[in-house]
Fold:
Amino acid sequence: MNGCTVAANGHDPYYIEYVQDLSQSGGGPLDPDTEATQQTYAAAMLAAGGCIKATEALMNGEVDAALCLVRPPGHHAGVDQARGFCFFNNVAIATEAARRCGALRVAIVDFDAHHGNGTQEIFYHRGDVLYISLHQSPFYPGTGTVDEVGVDEGAGTTINIPVPDNTRDQHYWRACQELIGPALSNFTPDIILVSAGYDAHWKDPLTGLGLTAAGFYQMTHFALQTAQHLCPGRLGLILEGGYHLPSLALSVENTVLALAEEPMLEEEEIPPPLHSAQAERINQYLDHAITTHRRRLNLAGA
Ligand SMILES: [Zn+2]
Structure:
């Protein structure tokens, strides 16, 4: 893949050239968290190219599902800005690849612990791309409120579900059942892409959420079943964050097992029980997001 291809995928061509020049001249900072090295441009191009290949294989019916284990991650990268360890937005690039292969509507589900502000920015005005994000709030990058719903043709195609620290597997499951599933059914995508970040794991050192590897198995299984129901199984997962390496490995392994429709790995340390005040706070966040979005989208039973 070259810079022109990336430019056709949501990024400003001058920004791509800038990353290329900076990287090839030895590297340097693009954002306080995001420093390019001499190898960054090549690595980011390989990551984006891998996601394009996987998406083309999904759209052409060559594979049933795909998991792209790529680095650097992408969901914070905006139209012309590197942020939060991300240079090029892999899931946005995959979305455009799916569109070129004939997908009329693409849904992106982002379960990374951080809000995918880059992905939201790129598709905020687009009615053909549904972006759904579950993320810790208040937290980096500070975006992703329930009220950010898209503009113009994209009004209604951004769904943010901010949750407080300590949110657990059962809360994500509730969001899947009561909001994400119905919203996907309502949108009728031709392919579902997932920004699969594993930093919502309870052991992750950068975040404060409380998921387990079993929770990632459950969400992957849910995504697979939803894709089988809505868009002949076309499901592509793209790696985002995940900073506790043993938990990342276990969670990715469970993701693969869910995609293969094999039983999950059972042995796992689980987080300490929630206090009642924490549980109440989490449910308040969820009640607000689920009720507001269901009413706004006029989902059945709202
Ligand atoms: Zn993250």
Observations:
- The chain has one domain: 3-297.
